Amino acid sequence: MPRRILIVDDDILVLDALRELLVADDYEVLTAARGQEALDILQREHVDLVILDLIMPKMTGLDVCKQVRTWKDEKSRVKIIMLSAKSEPGKQAIREEAEYDLYLTKPIDPLKLKELIHSTLGDLPQ
Amino acid sequence: MHTPELLNTLLDSATHTAIVVTDLDGTILEFNRGAAKVFGYTADEAKGKSLTKLTYSEDDRNSHFFEYVVEQVKSVGWTEERLLRLHKSGHLFPAISTATPLNDSNGKIRGILEITQDMPNLSSLEKELRNSKNFLENILESSIDAIITTDHKGYITYVNRAFRELVGLRSSQIVGKHISIFYKEGIDRARQIMSKLREFGHIRDYEFDMKIGDRIIPIRTSDTLLYDDCGEIVGTMGIFQDITTRKRLLEELSATQAQLIQAVKMRALGDLVAGVAHEINNPLMASDIILHLLEEKLENNPEMKKKVLLIKECNRRIQDIVNKLREFSRKAEVEFTDMDVNDAVRSVIAITRQQLLNQGIELKLALGSGLPKVLGDKNQIEQVLMNLISNAWDAMEGKHEKELTIRTYLRQDERQVKIGIRDTGIGMTEDQIEQIFNPFFTTKDSGKGVGLGLSICYRIIEAHQGKIEVTSTLGTGTEFLVSLPVYREKEKEKADGHELGGENAA
Questions:
Q1: Do the Cβ atoms of B290 and A107 come within 8 Å?
Q2: Which chain B residues in 183-212 lie under 8 Å from chain A, judged by CB atoms?
Q3: What CATH number is attached to the domain comprising B316?
Q4: Which of B66, B149, B320, B447 has minimal Cβ neighbours within 10 Å of its Cβ?
Q5: Is the pLDDT of residue A15 over 70?
Q6: The domain A4-122: what is its CATH number?
Q7: What percent of chain B has pLDDT over 70?
Q8: Which of A13, A55, A110 lies nearest to residue B292, judging by beta carbons?
Q9: Which residues of chain B have pLDDT under 50?
């Protein structure tokens, strides 16, 4: 069964490009353009990994990440990669609070991104 | 008709005025009560004696002054004299006398009538005069502002205490000298001030550089012409105020203001650039991904793949620029870290290299190897270098040979790392060099700069406990030399108060 990846980004261009990239790599891809939409999908569907844009209107990527980590079931342990055009916030506290797995800065080399997605998923049982 | 009694009564009623009648030889015939009071003799003592013997000073007696009086009376009809007269007690006193002729019934002159008043008020007038002179001098002497007067040719006639203190000289060393010795521009400035004075009668709040030995002091002066009773110009008076402190405060104020303006500007620019960078990065990444996918599809079409790779290269360039902009604009927080000046130079060169090339400027780098780190804010140091490079390139506009040399080296003895930025531009005059770090001073055409850049550079380097110096030759070029103290671990400890990175060795 292919791995399921949810891409969350308010920029449709980024969303489409990432989908193309990951579909070509045989992932099953879901997309959301808003934080709340992402939370709904995560509640409803099984997802192995979320690629989460940091800056989005209303609910930011950090908000989504924090929310997910408060859930009481195994859905709260979904792998999360933050992907942002802003460099990583320097404060250690933010990282600890949000508990994301990886922080990547846009633009990132597609090959490198695929590699990192692969390794982040790597320790999950097939 | 007159009676002798009436005459005597009249004469004696003038108790403070001496009325004396003599014959033409000066023998006293009448001597009223006033005369007794003025000269000290009784009428009996005086009558029949010589007027000159009793009441003239020795000098006047020897010069036969009475004969002169008689001559005057005979020829002109009267005379008035101010003389020192002799009192019976032997002391001389100032007096004013009027002499008129006494004629007989035939109109022939028989004697002299002399009316004399002493001038008792004279000494008190003198005292008053002296008091008022002291009073005025006191005012002049107590003035905080330096006061100087000259004659109409500019030779100094008086200086007050404040002036003497200002120049550190005694009155005797100043009075009689020409005012122009205190003007930096000498006689030219003196003429300029005098012609203004002649035109307007006075000058208010005129600023000039005062020369005192080797020192130059900024002075604000107000001057007026001095006139005599007839309205002739007899000299000038100037009030000098040392405005060194005021000027320095003003400069500091403008510098602070400049820094504030720059800080606000940089903050706004930072926000703008961060926003733009963010906006560019999204489509850039999308484009990267699509190119990547295209590239994979074109394994068998090397011609097309080459073109895709070219577009990818374009994307890398865009990304580089965005990154540099972002790094450069991150000014909000000043962060001192141990930094490599060569890194800063390379960062700035990465941004400017292409533009320098476009301007036909040849870039020469002579970066020292193994330089120790310095403690500084990389962004700020880059800002300084950026500014110096941009100035260098402005200075070389229109020159045939454009060469920008950036060198870095260590001065072990000073424990300083130096960054030199030299251009082959138009250079600067001594005057310009003197002012180059002043806020709002600029040698550029209006619209090309407001004159803030270097003053901000100066402040930044100052905050780094460093130095920024300039050497320049007119027509040949200019070099700015930035010195930054070598980083020591202890300083870092002080600066951020926690553990040390272990990599300051170089």
A1: no
A2: none
A3: 1.10.287
A4: B447
A5: yes
A6: 3.40.50.2300
A7: 90
A8: A110
A9: 1, 331-332, 491-506
Are B167 and B73 found together in one domain? no
pLDDT value at residue A35: 93
Mean pLDDT for chain A overall: 87
Last residue of a domain, one of B274, B302, B329: B329
Residue of A115, A108, A57, A58 whose CA lies nearest to A82: A108
3-state secondary structure of B415: coil
B383-to-A59, B131, B263, B323 alpha-carbon distances in Å: 36, 67, 12, 16
Q: Which two tokens stand for residue B351?
A: 């941004």
Contacts of residue A20 in chain B, CB cutoff 8 Å?
Answer: 289-290, 293
Do residues B93 and B216 share a domain?
no
- Inter-chain touch A13–B278, beta carbons under 8 Å: no
* B332 inside 8 A of chain A by CB: no
Q: How many domains does chain B have?
A: 4
* Single-letter code of the amino acid located at B286: A
Counting residues of chain B whose pLDDT is more than 90, the rounded percentage is: 40
Two structure tokens written together for B2: 């007159």
Residue B26 CB partners (closer than 8 Å, separation 6+): B50, B51, B52, B66, B112
Q: Which of B278, B289, B297, B308 to mutate to test the interface with A (most CBs of A within 10 A)?
A: B289
By Cβ distance, the residue of A18, A85, A86 closest to B289 is A18
Global pTM exceeds 0.80: no
Domain assignment present for B351: yes
Comparing CB atoms, the residue among B279, B287, B292 nearest residue A21 is B292
Render pLDDT for A21-31 as a digit per residue (tens, 0 to 9). 999 989 999 99
Q: Domain extents for chain A?
A: 4-122
**A106 and B289 in contact by Cβ < 8 A?**
no
B214 and B346 share one domain: no
